[in-house]
């Protein structure tokens, strides 16, 4: 079971689950993630800006990694996979 973490929400889980469902090591920009979650899969009703903001927060928690600063591509980290598997405690996800 995943820990309940203050400051995280359903968009965070949707983003992480989307990355997990892709090939390992895939890197995507927020617009592509938003398009798939919002338009194609219809699992969120939030704006593209919200998804981009949440992805930056997930990077602060080390659940996503920004792999290209100039293009804004992100990928799922091992810590992100551990979170999805329920292998982390809420304290492991605090932003320092």
Descriptive tags:
4 helices, 2 strands, Arc Repressor Mutant, subunit A, two-stranded antiparallel sheet, 96 residues, WH_DNA-bd_sf, WH-like_DNA-bd_sf, 46% helix, 9% strand, Transcriptional regulator, mainly alpha
Can you describe this structure in just a few lines?
By secondary structure, the protein is mainly α.
Tell me about this structure.
This protein has 96 residues and is mainly alpha-helical. It has one domain (10-85): Arc Repressor Mutant, subunit A. The chain has four helices and two strands. The chain has a two-stranded antiparallel ribbon with strand order 1-2. A hairpin with a 4-residue loop joins strand 1 (64-68) and strand 2 (73-76). It is globular. The model has no long low-confidence stretch (mean pLDDT 93). InterPro entries: WH-like_DNA-bd_sf, WH_DNA-bd_sf. This is Transcriptional regulator.
Task: Tell me the β content.
Answer: 5-15%
Mean pLDDT: 93
The gyration radius over C-alpha positions equals 12 Å
Which secondary-structure class do the elements indicate?
A: mainly alpha
CATH architecture: Orthogonal Bundle
Q: Roughly how many Å apart are the termini? A: 24 Å
CATH superfamily: Winged helix-like DNA-binding domain superfamily/Winged helix DNA-binding domain
The fold-level CATH name is Arc Repressor Mutant, subunit A
Question: Into how many domains do the coordinates divide?
Answer: 1
Roughly how much helix do the residues carry, as a percent range? 40-55%
Report the order of strands and helices: HHHEEH
Uncertain spans, ≥5 residues at pLDDT below 50?
A: none
Helix count from the secondary structure assignment: 4
